[in-house]
Amino acid sequence: MLLTLYQIIEMITSIFVMLIIIQFIIGLLFAFNVVGRNEFLMSFYDGINRLLEPVLRPIRRRMPDTGAIDFSPLVVIIVLQIILLVLRNIIMSV
Question: Are 50 and 42 in contact, with CB atoms under 8 Å apart?
Answer without folding.
Answer: no
